[in-house]
Write the structure tokens for this entry.
Amino acid sequence: GGPRRLLLISNSTLHGGGYLGHCQQHIQSFLGQKVKRVLFIPYALHDRDAYARTAREKFESLGYGLDSIHESCDPVEAVRKSEAIFIGGGNTFRLLKALYDNCLIHEIRKRVLEDGIPYMGSSAGTNVATVSINTTNDMPIVYPPSLQALGLVPFNINPHYLDPDIKRTHMGETREERIRQYHEEPNTPPVLGLREGTMLLVEGDKATLQGVTGARLFLRGKKPTEHEPGTDFSFLLTDSNPLNP
């Protein structure tokens, strides 16, 4: 066993760069040299073969082998044998439904929280690492049995967080307004809005904001606050949260 280790990335691709290009050094320092192979979970996209090819190419270029869980005849066993897990982006509802359908919620939690294997998520893969997927930006194209997610951290994240554009005439709700609506419900945990190019590194009881663009933190009943890369978010890990399974 060992302390939980998570790298929760807002987005897989940053404008002007390739797949995971903006965070590949973070990935290498996070996985280190002990990890030889990564178990990839491509359930958030429909074309799993193509998605696995993209991920495999990237991880092999960084010096890691990659096995895609959809190619395994026993997904539960694949998780039990994994050295590290990476869940990619796509549709969060589709992803969470597949995790439930394949009986992987408990197995992934155990590997990460009890056995201490590294967990990486980007976009939807970051959403499912949190308490619930209530703060995803995605459309509910399928119906998972629950919105409760892996609960690897006791708060929620909004990946691809967008600031309001004061020049636009679009009158739809801003991301901030939608998160505030979520916090109008009782017992809702903090929400960390991760802008593109930002990620949260969790090592044991320490959480640090990394990347280039910063984040916005929403606490129920309080004004949102702005945070630069390097911010220590460890206090979010100790907040008791009744929703955490």
Remarks:
- The helical segments are 24-31, 48-61, 75-81, 92-101, 105-114, 124-127, 175-183, 235-238.
- The chain has a mean pLDDT of 93.
